[in-house]
Amino acid sequence: MATRSPGFSRTQTSRGNSCKNIFNKIRQGQITGVGLTRGSQFPVALLEERDKRAQWQGIPVLLRRLHESSHPNSDLAKIHSMVMELSSLLSMEAMSFVTEERKTPQESISPNTYTFDLFGGVDLFVEILMRPTLTVQGDLPILSDDLIKDCLSVLYNCCICTEGVTKSLAAREDFVTFLFTLMSNKKVFLQTATLIEDILSVRKEIIQLEEIPNLASLVQSFNQQQLANFCRILSVTISEPDVGVDDKHTLLARSTQQKTSTCPSRAESNQVTLVNIPGFIERLCKLATRKVTEAADASPRLELEDWHSWLDNALVLDALMQLAIEEAEQSSTESSDESSLSSSPLRHRLPQSMKIVHEIMYKVEVLYVLCVLLMGRQRNQVHRMLAEFKLIPGLNNLFDKLIWRRQPSGHVLHRQNQNCDCSPEISFKIQFLRLLQSFSDHHENKYLLLSGQELNELSDIYLNANIFEMEALNNTDRSLVCDGKKGLLTRLISVMKKEPIDSSFRFWQARAVESFLRGTPSYADQVFLLRRGLLEHILYCIIDSGCKSHDVLQSYFDLLGELMKFNIDAFKRFNKYVNTEEKFQMFLTQINSSLVDSNMLVRCIVLSLDRFESQTKDVKVVEVFSECRLLSYMAQVENRLSFLFRLTSIINVQTLTQENVSCLNTSLVLLMLARRRGKLPFYLSALREKEYAEKYPGCLLNNFHNLLRFWQHHYLNKDKDSTCLENSSCIPFTYWKETVSVLLGSGRSSRCAIASYIDEAYRDLDRDFLEL
């Protein structure tokens, strides 16, 4: 085998070690803070010699020259030329990273950016940008907008291509605050906002907006396009950090966390800060409801399968950025927002579908921020503002032309919990539905989703049924409701009925409609939706459509429960649709396939049955009761006990979440209704017999005892949750508390205490939750 000469081998080793030694010395200095910490500290001759061998593209030498030239009174033109030279060496790597499937940052893929960072380029560029803020001299040269842009672009490229750069910048509080102040310069806004968004997304702690100097003035200075882009940044600052898929999302873990932290979180504080900025909510409403200028001869759209390639194309990205810049320059006043947009030369050169996507991308961010604020501590204040500024009527006017246009054939549907990059249009629809859900949920402003004509229909339903009109309906300001004949709720039901059966939009649509019904059951609200064929459509989806999605089925079970609760007309319609034993058995199979998903419907049926059994003088109730398969099925005590057995066995304190805690409450409803009729001992005896039949004595009752102890711990300190339980069940919360106390009674002789039904040898009732 041929071998290399010893001289060649030694030379190669020497050169390789020389380069590695320089890298190692810099890295060691950066870690320890002792010795050489940046490449500019090496002699130029040494850098030039090593550059040829290591193929550093002259970056270390350029940085050395830039460092020497960038003193307070330096020639900014000379500095800019070097910055541009460095930028050209890094920009192609960043573009390659973005367009080639977004690879994980690697030194081998981005050698120039890696070298730039290693030799102190990131710190040097931060220093150049911040230098005007670090000196008191007033006669220093002012950095040009182009120089600032190029510095920001280089830093952003480094964040994209080099691992660790974004986190190191995020750790510098002074630099993060400086970037916020830099956004007041409209010429560099886009580059600054892009870099801030990347930095904030990796911070361990959410930034406190109240600490940003003159935040209110800054936000008020933004034009509408800048405000929309700023919402991308705000979304990171007002959302609680994602806890992931570990046990931190359990109610037990949340309860423990709340004990250690009684103060509002940073996200909550930031929400308060934003809501209190004058004009902020009003401008978001204008952005959310702003119309897109439609072409007169066509209405093209961006196909979902094409949008990735469009946005990844460098020319398209440049066009979008240039469009934003032109809009920023032309939109100096609020009144010019739409007129200047329509007259922008570049806007006319862009395809119509790109204009629509451009607007949709803005609205996604705006709707997300509004949605988060609606769920925060300032909910009532935000609600009043959204009503006053006519957000809902504005969205209603956009519904057909922008929000829910026809889907093309061959449409690739996004599914719930699928890990993929949503297109702007899909994200827009989901954010719109989430906003409707948050807006309607347990709030009297839900009637703003209707039109004036539809409000009259509700009033007529109350009148014909000889029922007093609900105060919330009577108090609705009709000048703030939807225009035309159809409100948002009716439009939403129409598109839901046409949606492909496997579409994940069905989940969000059902959630939005269900939120309109939540709270104290309203007969008129239910009848309004029954008249629009909603119950039959839901039953079709559950029984006949072949739908397999647990998420979609759960949302339909919940919606069906709210639609039928205490409403004898709904049960009559149910019986008319489920008119064969085969259909009824299919319905029961779907319910029994996952009680976590269907237990809210089970609760509705049990509560309704209890009420109907007390209305023996009502001819209609008696007639429906005698014919309805569903009511007859639930009236059999063995079926109610079967549900109770399973509901109490599929959860425990350690696995309780916001998603499955409803199983515990449904179990309690079954036992409260039994207690009302003096049957509680019978139910507890049945649970004990079930344990012994399954050869697990004490297991079921010990678990249920611990669950009830946690229930006290969780609900007795939560006003909102307790109110929701009372309103949705029409059972006073005092009775909930009394029943739990009775079940947890310590008296061995009490026939209504769980402890009385557990033999001494199997009793394990007093262990701490954290030990279970």
From TrEMBL:
GO terms for biological process: ubiquitin-dependent protein catabolic process. One of its GO terms (molecular function) is phosphatase binding. It comes from the Eukaryota. It holds the Pfam family DUF3689. One of its GO terms (cellular component) is Cul4A-RING E3 ubiquitin ligase complex. This is Short transient receptor potential channel 4-associated protein.
